[in-house]
Structure formats: structure tokens, C-alpha cells
Predict the 3D structure of the following.
Amino acid sequence: MNPSHSLKQHIALAYILLAVMVAGAFSLVSYISVEIIEEQVIDVRLAKMADRLIDFQQQGRLPDAPPEVRFLIDGDIPPELQQLPVGSHELALNNRHVHALLREHGGRRYAVVQEVEELAHTEQVILWALLIGFAVSVLLAIALGMLSARRLIAPIAALAEAVEGNVAASALPSLAAQDEIGVLARAFAKRTDELQQFLQREQMFTGDVSHELRTPLTVMLGAAEVLAAQLSAQPAQHAAAERIRRVAAETAQRVSALLVLARAPESLHAPRTLLNAIVEAEMERCQPLLQGKPVACSLTCSEPVSAQVRPELAGIIIGNLLRNACQHTEQGTIVVQLAAGQLVIEDTGTGIPQRLRERLFEPFVHGAEQPAHEGTGLGLSIVKRVADRIGWDVRLQQPASGGSRFVLSFPALRTDLPGP
């Protein structure tokens, strides 16, 4: 999972954004309130003081101004203030921060100037306090967000780890919880139990059917061998009996392969198997499918090729791919290329329609619009399932010259290594 898109990150980010918005709004409102209060308090105070001082001056009395306030008349007013219009002003005068109120009364100009250095310092303190409070709020939000996210995600992470570890449904964590995590855990447990029961039923059914078929197949194989021995002096009948024996033997091998597939993957023993002999045997078995067709089937292989696989499982994959090529090729060639780590079966048949290529390995999907040979459409599906089971890869390619090319990839083994 990409950490930048994890649920933990989203929860922590939500806390941080909330803190930034709330603390930022509070700080902004506080700062604006301080500014408004400052302006109103100073302006009202200067206005009242100006009224009183101007009255004193007109009455000939000595103006009584506080020490931090200066009352200036006409020429005593500094040039910086002379240029300003009547009203309240905030400016720097002689490197001092002041508020000034200018008035004109009776043809004379008056100025009431108050230094606000202490007030400006207080304003700076408030501003820094707001900034520090904002930063502390964000840091607390980060810590609280990470802590809350960790506590919220911990049950989900434990549940995911248990599911990945294939823990029994009854042993999943948070099953007794009454919150959403408990609902999720119970849903996982129910689904896991259903899947395990389904897989168990499938394995038992496959094993039971395969076991029940072995006895009649053994009888058929024994009878075919006896019949072939009795007809050894009659070539035509002997060939038919030998074919029955061969088909019965092949069917027995397929049943054995089904029994192998019914086992758990970890119980499968995969010996070192020479694939050359399997390919040649499967090509020989497919020869009856090419009788009467102008089709040449050839094998290209320059060295022994081995793989870590059960022979019967490799035979299922290779045999189905070869039969598929023989059934759908009416003329031309079928070329089998075997090399280390790869088997390629290419034919000059009708090819696979574009709309069927993506679904070709699904059950009951035929590789042609109207197949010349009746079938269930399970051959390539079985190939795909067996290949996935043993860790091989099979894919379809469309040659430029037409037809089909199936590429079977498998882990290559060094030819100089001794067998088991």
C-alpha cells in the first residue's frame, strides 16, 4: 500500500486540517478584535481629550494634558502632521509610534498626539502569543492525530494480518467487538468459513470421484492388455486393442493427476522431470487427430529440458495445448519449440477471434466461432488452472502469418544438475 494514501495518513491529516482551520480562525478573529479595540479606544480617548483641551485653550486656561499626550497648536505642529488631513492618524513621528488627532476650530489647527509604544509592544506580545498558540495547536493536532490513527488502525491492521496469514475464522481478532471493526471481522470470518468449506467440498469431491474412477479404469486397462495379447497375431484387431489400452492408460494418468490437484498445494511433491519425453509422448498421442489432414507436426529442441513439476501435471498442460492445435489446424504445420524455461506451440490454424482472446482461458469458451470438433471448452481452462497451481505461466500470441501461438513459461533448471 502506498503510505501517502493509507487510512492512517488520512485520519492524521484530518486532525491537522481541523486544527489549522480552527486555530487559524480563532487567531485571525482575535487579532482583528485587538486591532478594532485598539483603534476605537484610542480614537475615542483622543477625541474626548481634544474636546477638553481645545475648550481649555479657548477659555484662556492652561491645557492639562497627560504626560504621554502632547497638545499642539498651529506652528507647533510638526510638518509631518501639517500635511495630513483632519482626522485620526497612526504614524511614526521622530522614530516613535504615535496616534494623532487633527482638528480645525475657529480658524486654528490643533493636534493631539499620543505615544503608543507600550500599546504597540502589547500588540506585538498578543500577536506572538497568537502565533505560538497556533503552532502549539498544530503540533498537538499532529500528535493527537497520529495517536488516534494508530489506535483506530491497529484493529484493522491486526485483522488484515490475520486474514493474510490464513488464520482460522474463529481465531480472527475483534470478533466480539460491537463497533464497525467487529462487524467487519465477523463478515470476514463468515466469508472465510464459507470459502474454506467450499474448497474442502471441492477437494473431497475431486478426490472421491477420482478414487471411484480408478477401479473401473484398472479393470479396463487389464482387459485391454489381455485383449491385445490375445490378438497379437491379428494386426488390425491388435491395433484397435492397443489403442483402447493406450487410452485407458492415459485416462488413468489423468485421474491420478486429479488426485494430485485435490491435495493441498504444500503437500505436492515436485520432482525434477525431463520435459522432452513428455512432449514427445503427447505428440504421439495426438497423431490420430491429424490423420487425413495435410498437417506436419514437428519438434525443435537442441538440449534436454527439465522442470520441477509432477509428470502427470505437465502432461495435462502440454497434452491439452497440443490437442487444441491439432483439432483447429486443417492444413499447414504445427511447430513445437522446447527450450530452457519455455515451450512454444505454434500452428497455422484458424486462430482465435479478437473478442475471445481475453476470455480464452475461462471455462466453456471455445477458441473458434464454430468448432469443427465438439468439446466442452474446458481444455484451455484446465491448462490455465493447472499452470497457476504449479507456478507456470501460459499466454496466447497471434502470429503475423495467422494461426495461434501458445507460450508456456516455467522456471528453468540447469541441465548439468543431477536429478533427485
